[in-house]
Amino acid sequence: MEFSQVVANRHSVRDFTDQPVSQEELADIVRTAQQAPSWVNSQPWRVYAATGATLAGIKKRHAADVAAGRKGDSDLPVKPRTEWSPATQENMAALGEQIGAQLGEGVQEFQASQGRLFNAQAVLYVTIPVESTPWSFHDLGAFSAMLVLAAADKGLGAINAYALVMYPDEVREAMGIGADEIVAVGIALGHPADSALAAFAPSRVDVDEILTIKD
């Protein structure tokens, strides 16, 4: 697939089929993402891939926690939306409007999908060292973007979601991740389901709103 097509087709998929993602596909995705830019070639990222019985166990515990009303306690701090910048608050509000307009009565499924971790058939947990500098977070973003694009190039759907890392203690236990690593990003992978939820893709702001060119 042409790169422009991969980028244009990529969106956060929130509903996957039961078709598994192979270990070979996961390795290829990570191998491709390793070409992401990295400050001083530090490559701070590590990837832990959960599939099969391991992922089933994570899903079961996650669903139970959500049902019990357990509050999330992610490694990275969570900031109330009211404390974000005005521009980002506008974008988040627009997302809410698009969800209601496009999904209608399916809005409840939008929320419920998080509790079942989108029926993902694989989850990539991306970590960086606890001692990371702000530059490593640049690398983290670049690497995460490359992961979802590499997945899209294979015809797979992906979504970066807070729900995947909101209970890092359980992820650490299941995946053998040490306390010296930040469980920073979770990316759910799978084959997109034939549903409105899977197809939902929010719009982006016009490029003129974010781009300044001075000649």
UniProtKB/TrEMBL annotation:
Molecular function terms, GO-annotated: oxidoreductase activity
InterPro entries given in the database record: Nitroreductase, Nitroreductase-like
Record keywords, A-Z: Oxidoreductase
Stored CDD domains: PnbA_NfnB-like (cd02136)
Keyword Methyltransferase among UniProt keywords: no
Domain Nitroreductase: 7-191
Annotated signal sequence range: none
PANTHER family referenced in this protein's UniProt entry, alphabetically: NAD(P)H NITROREDUCTASE YDGI-RELATED, NADH DEHYDROGENASE_NAD(P)H NITROREDUCTASE XCC3605-RELATED
Protein family according to the UniProt entry: Belongs to the nitroreductase family.
Protein name: Nitroreductase family protein
Organism: Actinomyces johnsonii F0542
Lineage of producing organism: Bacteria, Bacillati, Actinomycetota, Actinomycetes, Actinomycetales
